[in-house]
Amino acid sequence: MPIKTLEEFTVQQLQILDETGKVDSDLVPDLSDENLKKLYHAMTLSGWRMLGCSIFSARGGLGTIPVNKGQEAASCAPSWH
User: Taking the domains of the chain in order of start, what are their residue ranges?
Assistant: First the structure.
């Protein structure tokens, strides 16, 4: 049976901060220092909450939850107003 290609595609990625920590200044959002601190605080709380939920889940006190460690910005920043 011959092999046939079903689909070919590309994936685009928007990267504001590279692997070395350099930022693309054209893509930095216009946030005040106060809002930046609030967003950082929300991301920190999100990380601590995830840790607590993971521990609680491991003890059987919570259903299975997906681990979101390291993804705080991905979950907090889009909902920031």
Answer: 27-79
